[in-house]
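**User:** I keep going back and forth on a fold encoding question. It is easy to fool oneself when nobody else works the same problem. Could you pick a protein and write out its sequence and tokenised fold? Could you put it straight underneath, so I can go through it closely?

**Assistant:**
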Amino acid sequence: MIEGLVSIITPSYNSEAFIEQTIKSVLNQSYSNWEMLITDDGSKDASIKVIEKFSKNDDRIKLFKQINSGPAKARNNSIKNAKGQYLAFLDSDDLWFPEFLETSLKHVKNSEGFVFSSYKRCDENTLEEKYKDFIVPEKVNYIDILKTNSISCLTAFIDIKKLGKEFMPDIMFRQDMGLWLKYLNKINFARGIKKPLAIYRIRSNSHSRNKKKLLKPQWYFYRQVEGLSFLSSIYFMTVWAYNGFKKY
């Protein structure tokens, strides 16, 4: 582990349209001690060519390739290869504001090792605001995340010197939620940063917005991944569905 280094975990799959902007948002960070570990999950477009263009010019950007195996394996491969004290997560279509890393570092030092921030929600092509900013709570614990996952992958920031290196459960949906819960089992709460520090693209085919398609994976997550009882799963499922409706 290299102290002070931030390891940025990025999965990529057919991300040709957006990955260049994502990488540039990392290059524009005011804090420069980072490595960006991009694992391409068997893209069929020109994603790899775009990534290689940047990795050849900046050795902080590292490209890994795997056969198509899903986002959990792609993220976990990057986590496995991470050398930094800190883990940050940025999907291949999202963006950070220049002060994201610097601000997250400042706040994580006054926390139990886990912070996350608010973000803007914009149209996938124009980046015009589509919904009002998602403002996160001041803090969340394990139970809070079971009710609604207010920690978005693009703003999570973890000190693994304090909390250790953990991996996402190998499931198709809710892998990020599973990782946050692993860490929240170790600490009292994660701290939220009220200022929006990132841009989340609202994709037309987003699974996270289609709660009907997520009902079965969410139930599986409660019962099989977290091992909750039948009644507890019904309770959290109901609260989760209500909160998801309010979010969008």
